[in-house]
Amino acid sequence: MRYLILGCGPAGISAAKAVRGKDKKGEIVVITEEQGPPYLRPLLTELIMGRADVAGIADPQAQNLADRGIEVRRGKRAGKIDSAGNRVLFTDGAEEAYDVLLVATGGKPEIPPLLEKEHPSIFPFDSLDDTLRIADRVPRSGTVAVYGPGFLAIVASSALRKRGNDVVWFQPDLPRSGYPISGELEANILDSVRNTGVRIRDGQDIVAIREAGGGIEIESTEKGERVRCLAVVVATERIPAIGFLSGSGVKTGTGVVVDDYFRTSVPNIYAAGDCAELFDGGTRISRINFGWRSAIKQGRIAGENMAGAGKRYVREESDYFWALFGPALLDRIR
Q: Are residues 130 and 188 in the same domain?
């Protein structure tokens, strides 16, 4: 049996280990777009603040994969799935066959066209490479703007402020996916961010960016307000990275639609983690995963099921919400 896993984040790694636990002889190959070893994405802000190096945020879950007979191939991006032929075609022209496939590709940031431009002062905040560029190229003093609606913008704003920058956070709207923060918790989090000295521009979008004396000038939607800064860190929400599934027969919505066993509409294809959209037959509601703890749990169950376990996933609110938006998040901000 050949198991192919797309994605080497928490869901992909835990799935690979779970498969090996059930199938001692099967071939397991994990393929990722990332060039470097797996890392703990929630700790990327530690690099921005200078509190850790790359080795310090390595994912311990990924240790000794080779010793378990799990092969990891890096720097390869899926371009198309041929579900009839049980193969994945990659953008570099290579292809990989599978008996069972797991899609655990996570998400990619949705960046507004105005901020997509190649500019030395505009920095996306998503991957390890992005974070290293921010840590290396954004000065540790002076004004930095952060753009984004939710969790990533919160932690990016706080990290930049702690490293010594004056920070203006443009919070345009609520996230489309994931879980918007609301009520008393939202008030507490925003107060905590403000207390660090971050200036929050709630409900404001960026409508223009201009060169200005060695930096850039941002014009917002609020009465033409203009902010001069050294850099813009783009911390927009991550949308499931599933474009390569077009034409595969796999049903998708915002993410890959799966049942309680992480099965997709194609029998030997599964999905888990931040790209998975779980449909609840009782409530008739679909939910996108959002959170490290939940991704590990989903990957583990998906991996067991890929190897024939038939294990049902039991949803818990804490998997989605408190792992990121509870006291732990407040501790990271303060």
A: yes
Q: Where in the sequence is the domain holding 205, given as residue range(s)? A: 109-236
| CATH number of the domain where residue 312 is located | 3.50.50.60
What are the mean pLDDT values of the chain's consecutive 10-residue runs (334 residues total)?
97 98 97 93 92 94 94 96 98 97 94 87 94 95 92 91 94 61 66 88 88 85 82 91 96 93 97 89 71 89 97 72 43 53
In SS3 terms, 250-280 reads as: CCECCCEEECCCCECCCCCEEECHHHEEEEE
End-to-end C-alpha distance for the chain, whole angstroms: 49
Q: Are residues 128 and 87 in the same domain?
A: no
pLDDT digits (tens, 9 = 90+) for 98-155: 999 999 999 998 888 889 888 889 999 999 999 999 999 999 999 999 999 878 899 9
Q: How many CB atoms lie within 10 A of CB 210?
A: 10
**What's the DSSP call for residue 125?**
-
pLDDT of residue 281: 67
CA angle at 179 for the pair 175 and 183, rounded to the nearest 5°:
95
3-state secondary structure of 298: helix
Give the pLDDT confidence of 303-322 residue by residue, as tens digits.
Answer: 999 999 999 998 765 555 44
Beta bridge partners of 95: 89
The per-type count for the chain, helices as H runs and strands as E runs, is 10, 21
Q: How far apart are CA 208 and CA 220, in angstroms?
A: 7
Count of C-beta atoms within a 10 Å radius of residue 233: 29
pTM of the model as a whole:
0.89
Residue 61 buriedness (CB in 10 A; 0-12 / 13-18 / 19+): middle
Separation between Cα atoms, residue 261 and residue 90, nearest integer Å: 27
Residue 171 token pair: 């919070």
